[in-house]
């Protein structure tokens, strides 16, 4: 029995160990969650001793590169110098590999095939080894350059100081340079040049090439240098960093407004790195609308419009709310290189400030005259009013005023009636009732008045809200004599 129990324990332990190994091994597997590959240059032509080999070394991880640090070290079989970002590196010393995309530079100091091994390792202990072979030999001349260190942004003019060193006994004149390919502008000794043709180099000890490009990412200049007997090919690799256009602040004048309200977006736009060029483009558009009306608030219909920023990057855009609805309103910016900013979005509700659905009023008059003895007593005793009005969600009705005109004995008369809600503003008013408001029209003895002559006129009803806004409606002011 004890043997059976021991066997069960042993099998369980073995299963645990195998599962643990399988889990740990996931980090090392090609498809594991912490694996990566290296994208690199492969083949290198022979260079003269002292000339530079630039080569790409890009890490392609299956994980968030910034969250899992990576280091590297290198060895070389012969005497040479490896550089990264202009820094001379020491063999067998570990360095952080901060960026995924890199351009290394190797210079061989002796003839022969230089075998350089670069070993990378992330913090999950996943490692890779890449081997590079750089052939170095003797040549009629050697070409070297300095420059291009540090961050290069779009359109930055990047200077490279160049020289040609002929081997002893070789000619020192008759050298020419041809630029074969580059996605940007090239200047040689301050003068713009074209690709595909040779230019003389009268001073091989010191000549200057300036490159600028709007292309983001890794790019390369290929060029050739020749003398009377030999032509040699070279390249300069670059990593161009994208410029940014940043919405530092952007405030909308209101998110609940009324139709035909003048609105604005006011903010600050910054370019990074800073440039003296204040030109930008902006566009606005509605991405959703409760009424499917993509013109319910004025916008540029998702089309970019040129704009010159003000002092310190200030920006102002004026537009109008048009139709009632709830909208998602967006604004975005673009710089002179085509780089776009983040999108700023706002939920804007356009609602009616005040509305009158319907209204009516009838004036009541009293005639208690005795025309036999000439006694006349005519009076206005009040009105029967009806109104259905409503405010928006951010305002309330404070009062309603009916201004009425009618005709008594052929003469126009005016009378106003007020519904007062100042102390208790209302969201909606549905009123259908009498309104007090008596007025004596005539009392006395007058045989010239045979009966009360009063006829219809007109009215204007005005609804006021607690923000000072108003809306009106007009109609016939009816009269009734009792």
Q: Would you write up a description of this structure?
A:
This protein has one helix and 35 strands. It is mostly beta strands and 482 residues long. The protein has four domains: 30-138, Sandwich (Immunoglobulin-like), CATH 2.60.40; 140-241, Uncharacterised protein PF12988, DUF3872 (Immunoglobulin-like), CATH 2.60.40.2410; 244-350, Immunoglobulin-like, CATH 2.60.40.1930; 354-481, Immunoglobulin-like, CATH 2.60.40. The strands form seven sheets. It has a seven-stranded mixed beta sheet, with no helix packed on it. A five-stranded antiparallel beta sheet has the order 1-3-8-5-6, with no helix packed on it. Strands 2-10-9-4-7 form a five-stranded mixed beta sheet, with no helix packed on it. Strand 34 (454-465) and strand 35 (470-481) form a beta hairpin. The protein is rod-shaped, with a radius of gyration of 43 Å. The model is unreliable at 1-29 (pLDDT under 50).
């Amino acid at each position: 029995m004890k043997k059976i129990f021991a066997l069960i324990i042993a099998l369980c332990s073995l299963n645990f160990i195998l599962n643990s190994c399988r889990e740990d091994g996931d980090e090392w597997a090609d498809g594991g969650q912490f694996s990566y590959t290296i994208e690199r240059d492969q083949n290198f032509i022979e260079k003269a001793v002292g000339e530079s080999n630039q080569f790409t070394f890009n890490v392609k991880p299956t994980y968030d590169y910034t969250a899992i640090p990576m280091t590297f070290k290198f060895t070389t079989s012969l005497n040479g110098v490896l550089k990264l970002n202009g820094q001379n590196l020491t063999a067998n010393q570990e360095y952080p590999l901060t960026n995924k995309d890199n351009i290394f530079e190797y210079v061989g100091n002796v003839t022969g095939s230089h075998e350089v091994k670069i070993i990378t390792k992330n913090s999950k202990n996943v490692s890779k080894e890449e081997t590079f072979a750089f052939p170095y030999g003797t040549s009629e001349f050697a070409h070297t350059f300095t420059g291009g260190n540090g961050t290069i942004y779009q359109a930055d003019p990047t200077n490279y100081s160049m020289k040609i060193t002929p081997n002893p006994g070789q000619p020192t004149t008759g050298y020419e340079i041809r630029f074969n390919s580059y996605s940007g502008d090239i200047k040689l000794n301050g003068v713009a040049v074209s690709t595909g043709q040779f230019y003389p180099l009268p001073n091989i000890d010191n000549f200057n090439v300036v490159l600028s490009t709007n292309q983001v990412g890794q790019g390369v200049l290929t060029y050739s240098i020749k003398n009377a007997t030999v032509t040699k090919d070279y390249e300069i690799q670059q990593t161009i960093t994208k410029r940014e256009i940043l919405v530092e602040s952007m405030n909308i004048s209101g998110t609940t407004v009324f139709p035909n309200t003048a609105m604005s977006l006011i903010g600050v736009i910054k370019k990074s790195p800073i440039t003296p060029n204040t030109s930008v483009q902006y566009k606005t558009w509605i991405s959703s609308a409760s009424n499917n009306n993509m013109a319910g608030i004025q916008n540029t219909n998702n089309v970019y419009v040129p704009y010159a920023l003000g002092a310190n990057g200030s920006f102002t855009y004026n537009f109008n709310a048009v139709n009632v609805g709830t909208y998602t309103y967006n604004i975005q910016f673009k710089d002179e290189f085509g780089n776009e900013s983040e999108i700023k979005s706002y939920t804007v509700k356009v609602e009616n400030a005040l509305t009158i659905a319907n209204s009516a009023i009838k004036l009541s008059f009293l005639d208690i005259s005795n025309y036999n003895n000439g006694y006349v007593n005519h009076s206005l005793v009040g009105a029967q009013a009806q109104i259905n009005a409503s405010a928006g969600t951010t305002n309330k009705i404070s009062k309603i005023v009916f201004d009425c005109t009618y005709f008594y004995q052929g003469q126009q008369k005016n009378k106003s009636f007020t519904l007062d809600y100042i102390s208790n503003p209302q969201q909606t008013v549905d009123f259908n009732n009498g309104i007090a408001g008596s007025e004596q029209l005539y009392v006395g003895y007058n045989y010239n008045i045979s009966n009360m002559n009063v006829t219809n006129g007109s009215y204007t009803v005005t609804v006021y809200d607690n923000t000072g806004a108003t809306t009106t409606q007009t109609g016939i002011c009816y009269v009734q004599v009792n």
